[in-house]
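Section 5.1 Outputs to date
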Amino acid sequence: PRSAGSVGSVGEGENFWGIAHLWPCVVFFDEVVSTSVQDEERNRRQIGADLSQGWEFDP
């Protein structure tokens, strides 16, 4: 039978590993969000450039 102390330490270990396993997901999610924001800004600039070129080439 385990003592209460070992049960507590096992619980702490499980908490640590739970966070450790979640951490890559948090980092990945953060990267995805920041990347999608950057892509959206780039798309807006590209659309703006296309529109201005379209106006320039409009007879």
